[in-house]
């Protein structure tokens, strides 16, 4: 495959970092957390294994293989960042494997309300007189799959709807992997009482292979400082250039170009006050007008490319030209000594990881 060279470089860097005893991602607290979770899993009523919907297999939690008889529910989180139709295929795939699977966006209140009802229904199925019991559910998963965000959302929705309204608690939520250090208990329902345990993300270095390591790095499960961000950006652009996302962007750009001059002027905020505001924030890559320019730049470089995408060298040539062109789209003004590729890569990865550049599922559903 055309992605193999870039994937191998990233994967080997991740595996090398994991093998290093001084690694900044397999830390002593992660070793301790791994042991604590392993010991506690048999005593909880349900284990909610949270995975990243973009990588449903690559984000598997290895510890669960040692507990085949426990009540496990696979939660595919961040489904708003994954390809919707492929997420549904993955859910069906897990159901065929006799695994209960549920797809969510932990930041969507309606999603969380439906998930809470689903979890309460699961409790009712296994406990005859559930009102007399307290149910404990443990969230487990690799780093940065959204366990803490999910725990907070379930706690907030559950406590608001509960008969007694206690003070809301919160666990730390961060885009950086490895921020959760201890196991935290949060109440998510009453009558019956349901508590959820938020746990630190654990990633076992000896369980990774090159392809899995590269996918975990791209989606943010491993700290960027351990892998070259420019290579991660190249990896994303490889996926983008081999996807159908350009077709959607081509439609969007055509609609923008088809607007009347007057309407287009209003849309691009060309009034004096808005132009001043734009100048103040033009370096903020999350602004809509910057994202539009980034999409347009990537589309134009792709459409003007005449090489063979299946040829690795040709594909790398296209990616290099895109990284250079993106300096203008991101308004990168280089000072002496600054690395243009590094700045562009950081901004590009942020837009990918927040879904501003499309929704991609990196794992492929096995075909029987």
Automatic annotation (TrEMBL):
Q: Which organism does this sequence originate in?
A: Aquilegia coerulea (Rocky mountain columbine)
Q: Name one Pfam family in it.
A: MMR_HSR1
A molecular-function term among this protein's GO annotations? GTPase activity
> Which CDD domains does this one have?
YlqF
Question: From its record, what is one biological process in GO terms?
Answer: mitochondrial translation
Q: Which InterPro entries does this entry report, sorted A to Z?
A: G_CP_dom (IPR030378), GTP-bd (IPR006073), P-loop_NTPase (IPR027417)
Q: Where does the record place the CP-type G domain?
A: 35-205
Q: Which key words are in the record?
A: GTP-binding, Nucleotide-binding
- Please report the name of this protein according to its UniProt entry: CP-type G domain-containing protein
- In terms of superkingdom, the source organism counts as Eukaryota
């Amino acid at each position: 495959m055309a992605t193999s060279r870039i994937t191998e470089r990233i994967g080997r860097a991740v595996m090398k970092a994991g093998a290093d005893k001084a690694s900044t991602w397999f830390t002593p607290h992660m070793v301790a957390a791994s042991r604590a979770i392993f010991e506690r899993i048999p005593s909880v009523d349900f284990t909610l294994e949270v995975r990243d919907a973009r990588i449903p297999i690559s984000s598997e939690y290895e510890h669960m293989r040692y507990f085949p008889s426990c009540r496990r529910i696979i939660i595919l989180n961040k489904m708003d960042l994954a390809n919707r139709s492929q997420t549904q295929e993955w859910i069906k795939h897990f159901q065929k494997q006799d695994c209960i699977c549920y797809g969510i966006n932990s930041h969507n209140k309606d999603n969380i309300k439906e998930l809470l009802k689903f979890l309460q229904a699961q409790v009712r199925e296994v406990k005859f007189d559930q009102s007399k019991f307290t149910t404990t559910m443990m969230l487990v998963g690799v780093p940065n799959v959204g366990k803490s965000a999910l725990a907070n959302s379930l706690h907030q929705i559950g406590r608001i709807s509960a008969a007694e309204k206690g003070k809301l608690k919160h666990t730390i939520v961060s885009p950086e992997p490895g921020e959760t250090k201890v196991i935290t208990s949060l109440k998510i329902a009453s009558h019956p009482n349901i508590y959820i345990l938020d746990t630190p993300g654990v990633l076992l270095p000896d369980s990774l292979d090159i392809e899995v390591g590269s996918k975990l790095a791209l989606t943010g499960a491993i700290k960027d400082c351990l892998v070259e961000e420019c290579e991660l950006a190249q990896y994303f652009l490889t996926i983008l250039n081999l996807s159908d996302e350009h077709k959607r962007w081509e439609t969007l750009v055509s609609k923008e170009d088809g607007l009347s001059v007057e309407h287009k002027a209003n849309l691009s905020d060309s009034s004096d006050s808005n132009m001043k505001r734009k100048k103040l924030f033009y370096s903020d890559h999350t602004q809509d007008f910057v994202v539009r320019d980034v999409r347009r730049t990537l589309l134009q470089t792709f459409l003007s490319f005449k090489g063979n995408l299946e040829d690795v060298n040709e594909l790398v040539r296209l990616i290099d030209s895109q990284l250079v062109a993106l300096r203008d789209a991101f308004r990168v003004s280089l000072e002496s000594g600054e690395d243009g590729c590094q700045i562009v890569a950081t901004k590009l990865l942020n837009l990918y990881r927040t879904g501003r550049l499309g929704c991609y599922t990196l794992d492929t559903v096995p075909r029987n």
